[in-house]
Design a protein that fits this description.
heterodimer; A: 534 residues; mainly alpha; 16 helices; B: 283 residues; alpha+beta; 10 strands; 42% helix; elongated
Chain lengths: 534, 283
């Protein structure tokens, strides 16, 4: 069989068919597709949870949840799912797997079998998290309600049931999955670039992935250590985080945020790379200040490791420590500003074509700026005193993640969908999706700044009546965004049914990276002859 | 360029209207419906926080407005119809240095008042009164070590227990009471999990961590009742453990102390009599 198939030509490689093709897959494109489908599913579950929370918060009083515990379970699961089972699989597992080999001129990832286990750990991890929703957490109530930050002692003595153990094991698997992926990406990017492609000729998307996977490699083990200590505190009588045995609850927070702050850059830096590719493509102009863009990401990643305690200004840190974290945090605004202005400068003098990916990219640049400047406000410990743990923080991190990271994912999705599937999506549906989402999410999150300034705490199922007005507005916005998500799914189905061929390069002269030199979709194995980069 | 300047001026006008219009809409001691900004101040620290926040609001609105204006200009001037032939410019050393140096200068401009505020908050002045607040699932206990160390629990009032004018989810049965214009030191700790003691109008928020004592301070400048809510997720009823501080005149405070000593004395005495009784049992 194998010899006959090979005889048909270069594209016909022997590989398992049916379900075996995916379960046993060692192909970066198939694995990337599985990551993307997985992320769509994760996003659907996480999105439904968020609509559930907004339904509850639409009016004062408890309407949908019989107690506040279940609401807290929703916030916890929403956070964990969106981070570990939506954004990371989409950006790194999905687009990273698909595009890194194509962009650097490599036939596949360096460790194809490890790539397989990286992906298949995730469904197992997600299952453990879903199981945690149905076993006891707080006394007599199911699910983890300790927030995605799972601070001790609420996650130890506060949750005697096994739900937190399931969540910890879930995070362990997700962490192992992403560490293996990171090793694979680093090896691939360092060793498998096509002849002539020096590091300084790499597309910025590959640079962004390189920075991201280094952050994963250095940050995830810290989370693993912290949650292992949490696990032994819970089950084996250790007292790492229990003052009664000489431990300290704040130790957990320091360990958690030493992972947690780089983690938020893990969620956004690949998006920076995508936006650079997209802006350059549709401006028909090379990226402005390429080296500055690449090293700005390196700087953001580096500084991201030394700012963690700005999440902890109210825990009772010394004046000197707070002052240090104020300065270090504000420094991040500088490389971030370089990126924003370089994107604008890339478009300046260009010949912009407002295709759907560019709309998402421009939307991202503005909304990320808004989220960035509220970040500068929060960086100042003095004013953060009033805003810590309020909806102002919720608004801030959703502007940089829900409106930042998610906008980049959609930008990347529309940009590479023709390449990955071979079909053109409908511009009309894509643009409708963009405008519904853009208007919707702003209605959701902009009023939350007002709620936060007025003092509304996060993670509460019911609020004083004065907060009712803006909460109603915010909830209405979430239904509009939810409708936008339905339009997205309709658009995907429509594109696959319409089957309009995309061609090798639907974007024209501006799309200069290697993936556009291949057919759409690319052959099962590409670059039988390595491309030569001049 | 003219468009850019106009947009920024327009944005700043809106911010000025917001910042200037705030006190009318913002609640004192509790939020008010459709409030846009911070709660009104009732302490010197909060005065400074509000000033600093408004200062930052002007700066960040100008920056966001500037980026928005640039994006609009780019979209108008450099779309495919207006500019069919793209340039190939990829470098401009001067502008790249400018957009690195100018943000650094803006940040230094922010850092000076930021540190002033931070040091003002964290240097606790000599206190006239110390109150210890202990966070528990799901209520607060207050004790007054300067006045005999009586302690009482403060629980949220439920439906039917509240008077007409008391706000839902904020009013409590036993308020923490302090004198006006006196420096109050609050020390906090957690009995079970981490809670956080926060009163927006005083500009204070300090975590109550098991095994630790944290401190903060405020000087209430106006009499009245000031509400806050637990600000660290602490389990099921996290939303239902408000903080209520009643600020009264010095005379009223002395009278309250005398009452409170009697009213809450029972809790103090009870354990000690139990111990004494236990000891009196012959072995």
């Amino acid at each position: 069989m194998a010899t006959i198939e090979k005889a048909h030509g270069e594209d016909q490689h022997d590989h398992p068919h049916g379900w075996r093709r995916y379960l046993y897959s060692t192909n970066h494109k198939d694995i990337g597709t599985m990551y993307l489908v997985f992320a769509l599913f994760g996003g659907l579950v996480g999105g439904i949870l968020s609509i559930g929370m907004r339904l509850e918060l639409m009016h004062p009083g408890l309407q949908f949840f019989h107690d506040a515990h279940m609401f807290n379970v929703f916030t916890t699961a929403h956070g964990l799912i969106m981070i570990f089972f939506m954004v990371m699989p989409a950006m790194i597992g999905g687009f990273g797997n698909w595009m890194i080999p194509l962009m650097i001129g490599a036939p596949d990832m360096a460790f194809p079998r490890m790539n397989n286990i990286s992906f298949w750990l995730l469904p197992a991890s997600f299952s453990l998290l879903l199981i945690s929703l149905f076993v006891e957490g707080e006394p007599g109530a199911p699910g983890v309600a300790a927030g995605w930050t799972i601070y001790a002692p609420l996650s130890t003595s506060g949750h005697p049931g096994p739900a937190v153990d399931f969540a910890i094991l879930s995070l362990h698997l997700a962490g192992a999955s992403s560490i293996l992926g990171a090793i694979n990406f680093i090896t691939t990017i360092f060793n498998m670039r096509a002849p002539g492609m020096t590091l300084h000729k790499m597309p910025l998307f590959v640079w962004s992935q390189l920075v991201t996977v280094f952050l994963i490699l250095l940050a995830m083990p810290v989370l693993a250590g912290a949650i292992t200590m949490l696990l032994t505190d819970r089950n084996f009588g250790t007292t790492f985080f229990t003052p009664g045995g000489g431990g300290d609850p704040l130790l957990f927070q320091h360990l958690f945020w030493f992972f947690g702050h780089p983690e938020v850059y893990i969620l956004i830096v690949p998006g920076f790379g995508m936006i650079s590719q997209i802006v350059a493509t549709f401006a028909k102009k090379p990226v402005f200040g390429y080296l500055g863009m690449a090293y700005a990401m390196v700087a953001i990643g580096g500084i991201g490791f030394v700012v963690w305690a700005h999440h902890m200004y109210t825990v009772g840190m010394s004046t000197a420590a707070q002052a240090y974290f104020v300065v270090a945090t504000m420094v991040i605004a500088v490389p971030t500003g370089v990126k924003i202005f370089s994107w604008v400068a890339t478009m300046w003098g260009g010949s912009l074509e407002f295709k759907t990916p560019l709309l998402w990219a421009i939307g991202f640049i503005f909304l990320f700026t808004v989220g960035g400047v509220t970040g500068v406000v929060l960086a100042n410990a003095g004013v953060d005193r009033s805003l810590q743990d309020t909806y102002y923080v919720v608004a801030h991190f959703h502007y940089v993640l829900s409106l930042g990271a998610v906008f980049t994912i959609f930008a990347g999705w529309y940009y590479w969908f023709p390449k990955m599937s071979g079909y053109m999506y409908s511009e009309t549906i894509g643009k409708l999706h963009f405008w519904l989402t853009f208007i919707g999410v702003n209605i959701v999150f902009f009023p939350q700044h007002f709620l936060g300034l007025a003092g509304m705490p996060r993670r509460i199922a019911d609020y004083p009546d004065a907060f009712a007005g803006w909460n109603l507005v915010s909830s209405l916005g979430s239904y509009l965004s939810g409708f936008g998500a339905l339009v997205f799914f309709f658009g995907v189905a429509h594109a696959f049914m319409r089957k309009q061929k995309a061609g090798d390069n639907p974007w024209g002269a501006g799309a200069t990276t290697l993936e556009w030199t291949l057919p759409s979709p690319p052959p099962f194995h590409q670059y039988n002859e390595l491309p030569l980069i001049k | 360029m003219l468009l850019l300047i106009r947009l920024i001026v327009f944005a700043l006008t809106i911010v000025a209207a917001l910042a200037g219009g705030e006190p009318a809409l913002a609640g004192l001691g509790q939020p008010s419906p459709w409030q846009l900004g911070l709660q009104q101040s009732a302490s010197p620290v909060m005065d400074n926080i509000i000033w600093f926040h408004d200062f930052l609001l002007y700066i960040i609105t100008a920056i966001a407005g500037f980026v928005l204006a640039l994006l609009i200009i780019v979209m108008v001037r450099f779309n495919a119809r207006a500019n069919p032939a793209p340039s190939r410019t990829t470098h401009n050393t001067l502008i790249e240095i400018a957009w690195t140096i100018i943000p650094i200068m803006i940040l230094m401009f922010i850092a000076v008042p930021s540190f002033k505020l931070l040091f003002f908050q964290l240097n606790v002045p000599p206190a006239d009164l110390t109150v210890k607040a202990t966070g528990k699932q799901w209520f607060w206990s207050y004790s007054y070590p300067d006045n005999g160390g009586f302690e009482f629990d403060s629980l949220m009032l439920k439906e039917g227990e509240r008077k007409q004018d008391q706000p839902r989810l904020l009013a409590v049965d036993n308020e923490m009471v302090v004198p006006v214009n006196k420096t109050v030191r609050v020390i906090t700790t957690g009995a079970d999990v981490i809670h956080s003691f926060a009163v927006p109008s005083f500009g204070i928020k300090i975590d109550a961590v098991p095994g630790r004592i944290n401190e903060t301070w405020f000087t209430a400048t106006r009499e009245g009742v000031y509400y806050g809510q637990c600000s660290e997720l602490c389990g099921k009823d996290h939303a239902f453990m408000p903080i209520a501080v009643r600020v009264v005149s010095e005379q009223a405070f002395s009278a309250w102390i005398e009452d409170a000593k009697k009213k809450y004395a029972r809790d103090e005495v009870l354990p000690s009599t139990t111990v004494a009784a236990a000891q009196s049992v012959p072995e």
